[in-house]
Amino acid sequence: MQQNKLARRLSKATKSRRKQHTEDTQVTVEWGQRLDTAPPSTPSTRRVTRHSGLTNKELYKSIIVNGTEYSIGDAVAVKSSTDDPHLAIIYKLWQNERGERQAVARWLMRPHEMHTKRVEAGPREVFYSNAEDLIAPEMILRAIRVVASGEDGEWVCRRSFEEHSARISELDWASVYGKNMLLDARVDAELFGQKLESGAVKKQPAKGVPGVKKRKHEVESDDEESTEDESFMASDGGESAEEKSHRTVRKVRSSRVKEKTRTVPKRRARLHDMQPQAVNTAMLKRASRTTNTPQTDDIAGRTMYEAARLRLHVSAVPATLPCRESEFAEIYRHLHTALEERTSMCMYISGVPGTGKTATVRECVRMLRESADDGCVPAFEFIELNGMKMTEPQQTYVQLWQAIGGERATPKHAAQLLDAHFNTPSPRRHTYVVVVDELDLLVTKSQSIMYNLFDWPHRPHAKLIVVAIANTMDLPERMLHHKVSSRLGLTRINFQPYAHAQLMAIVRARLVGCAAFDADAIELCARKVGAVSGDARRALDVCRRAVEIVEHEWRAQPTGHAMPMVTMMDIDRAVKEMQAAPHVTFIRNASAQQKVFLVAMRAAMRKAGVAEVPLGDVALVHRQLCLMHAMRAPSYEQIGVICAQLGASRCVLAESSILDVRQLVRLAVAEDDITVALKPDPVFSKLATS
């Protein structure tokens, strides 16, 4: 009893000390001088709109934190997630319509915080950058002293860092900072090539701004550009859509400030400013410029059959992605816009297997990486997660944090670290493009993983782009709670199955320069696969197997025999051989109830939108199908026996820890194999194709 009383006293004493420590370290914030930018003649009843020139924010010149006043333009230390604070310049101060105090910090980056190659710098040298973050004023710790050349213990700034292109320029800090020129929009135009706000100053680089050195590639004057823009505007009449899109591109390119210290290609037009048909045209031209044309290197030193087998393998990376131009352009446009504007977003991509979802996303990322290397978009980090490669859904946190933080942690600790990472502003924060493939396998009962993945991009400092890929179009509405699906947003792209004409184009694109196939053979393969599933991988497998059959027969001939091409007969033999696979033969010769169980299992999986479904759901569909087709409906115990029989033949994978209706089951064979096996059966042909 005495020990319990002592423990309670110690607990109360600990809580009181913690409360006292919290009160002692509590940050007090109050506003200083107010910045009034509204015109005196503006009536107070005027409605605030995007183009009215008014704002709901109350702007301030200074703020008082713990009794110390900080003004706009002051250099301060900002609280970070570690003991080493960040350094920044207070750029803006305001109070929004909800009464929240907010500040915009423009970071003073140290060499290890810059996403560029190693830079020679002093131990106390910082770089003035155009990277900004919205922070709470409570995060301001103290004022710091930054000079152009100082003694030990002082921060030194001699150069600037442009985050967009990772460009470093010389800067006379004494002239710029001493005269409070950092807040001048002309200085940003000189240092970073940023577009000036309308009405602020003339749209031309500032001449004679102190502290900013002229560069060789700087534009002498904007008179020629304005004249060129006027000539474009004057020739607007009678233009086609393509001509207008080209004019838009030229106009946007001409308005860019050409001030690169190294040779960098011109910045491309922002895709969301272009017309939809112009977006597709621009993407196709961009792909034709950056994507390598089909080479004949794989043919050199190989036979015709060896080159065809190499190109038709599903793991081979094609030179182009035909028949997915519109989806490619839409994905690229969303990602390009988010990267250029440094914003976060979520994107949901759906479609049946084999429709090119993952390949299209990877191609978009590859092209964006090339643009980032050219300095056309900000640098970003690419992370790819796959639900099929995880032992449990919670491994999502572990793999994501390992890619971001470079260290392993338990799922719970990794989730906490990720939450803190996306909530804390930092100058070293890159934009992360995270592709989550096989999303339907990460659905849990609480749906906490899905909630966090789609909620983190909505944090102010996240800089996170999540691209979710799944096989079910309506997975968010069918499986996810409303609070999860609402965070996913409305950016959704659906990939339709390939038609036979598209399958023909895909196979022919891979066989450019390799005359191993007859044209009719490719068409027959495309029609057979397109009638069943529209899976491009299945079409490639059929063609590859046909090549192997012809090659085997050719090698059995005497030396010097001509190499025959793959014909329609060879394609037909390959299709029949794939239909005669052991698991297809087993399904074709299975009992009626086993066939019904497989069809019911496929229907339950499609309804749930996930690969694993409870045995009880399958049993319910099984009994309904039997009653609909005048068959004897088995009991739940008998359905369990049928499931065990199919599990023993490796057609079904069943959970071994639970042996009741809650047992999770999944197909161990492809759905297309079930369709192919049951299609010749007159009783099950309608069920197989439904």
Comma- or semicolon-separated keywords:
single chain, 690 residues, alpha/beta, 24 helices
Task: Give a description of the structure.
The chain has 690 residues and is an alpha/beta fold. Helix content is 41%, strand content 15%. The protein has 24 helices and 20 strands. Strands 2, 5, 6, 7, 8, 9, 10, 11 and 12 form a 9-stranded mixed beta sheet that branches. Helix 10 (395-405) crosses helix 11, helix 17 crosses helix 18 and helix 19 crosses helix 23 (671-678). The longest helix has 23 residues, at 2-24.
Topology record:
Elements: H1 2-24, E1 29-31, E2 58-59, E3 62-65, E4 68-71, E5 75-78, E6 86-95, E7 101-109, E8 125-135, E9 140-143, E10 146-147, E11 155-162, E12 167-170, H2 173-178, H3 185-192, H4 223-234, H5 241-254, H6 276-290, H7 304-312, H8 325-341, E13 345-351, H9 357-373, E14 380-386, H10 395-405, H11 411-423, E15 431-437, H12 448-455, E16 464-470, H13 475-479, H14 482-488, E17 492-495, H15 500-510, H16 519-532, H17 536-555, H18 568-579, H19 582-588, H20 592-608, E18 613-614, H21 615-628, H22 636-648, E19 652-654, E20 664-667, H23 671-678, H24 685-689
Parallel strand pairs: 8-11, 10-11, 13-16, 13-17, 14-15, 15-16
Antiparallel strand pairs: 1-3, 2-6, 3-4, 5-6, 5-9, 6-7, 7-8, 11-12, 18-20, 19-20
Helix pairs in contact: 5-6, 6-8, 7-17, 8-9, 10-11, 12-14, 15-16, 16-17, 16-18, 17-18, 19-23, 20-21
